[in-house]
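Hi X.,

You mentioned you wanted examples for the new student's onboarding notes, showing what a folding record looks like when two proteins sit in one file. Here is a clean example. The first protein comes first, with its sequence line followed by its structure tokens.
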Amino acid sequence: MTSGTSLKGVILAAGFGKRMARLTQNYPKPLLPIVNIPALERIILSYRDVGITDVLIITGYKAEAIESYCHDGRQWEMNISYIRQTEVSGTGSAARLAAEFTRDTPFMLTYGDILLEHKEYQAVFNLFNSSDHGAVSALNRLEDISIGSAVYLDGQRIIRVVEKPQRETAGTNLNNAGLFIFTPDLFDAIDRTPKSKRGEYELTEAIQLSLSENKNMSAHIIDGVQYDIGTPEAYLESNISLIHLFSESTDSPDIIS
């Protein structure tokens, strides 16, 4: 457990997983195993190991399966609760459901289909605690930033985010890696964020609104692997990458808590 600011944890796990084809017919994406352990459980354990004991999971598609697997969290010595997102209206709307749970407490937020090595959760936590950063986002580098969320920096400070920019003109390969620490100020920004072109309330747009109002958000660029289960190809690659990590290390891989 890590000392420092007390955080709560939020995991967005409501998506349908349409791009996963038959893999999610019977299971929600977050319960798909990465080397025999569901991605969601790996995330929960990483939260626990940075000192987070209270976690809210936003569920939707096959919510019962997630709630049945995780129960109330006591098997991990944690407190887990749930809110179901009944209307699929974007990641911003999903995050907004956590307002009553977090109240005045900063919180770590991630997606249930994205997993980082444990050291990255710790690094984001440490950065948040090191000074008054306001908020923190983990970033990774993408070869093709047009499929991600481009992030622009001034030193360590994030100054702009752009969803799926043109690759040729983006001018950066830094991408939102899907792990954040926010303060409750985020919910006010979500409330003032208009719908995107897709007709949804996007978390990225709420972040950009906050940045445009000079809210402080710092970046941690990961040096490990981002394990993604958003598509069948990414899911296969994530399993292969972690198997290689097992085979190359004489100790437990850093992703295992």
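Then the second protein repeats the pattern, sequence line and then tokens:
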Amino acid sequence: MELHVDGMTCGGCVRSVQRVIAKQTGIEAEKVTVDLESKSARFEGNPPDTEKLVEALKAAGFEAKPKG
């Protein structure tokens, strides 16, 4: 799955997005690819609840939506 994530401005933001996605999906944070330049987050598989993942990212200060 790939998400467009607004609000990332630094490496700390990248790590925060990785942690949120890992917590919501059960995927190890190291397996979540986050690209600051393209404002995208990518990981294998689909989250159990995409809406819940988007809400968790919003609570962490990021706006996200599925790409594609």
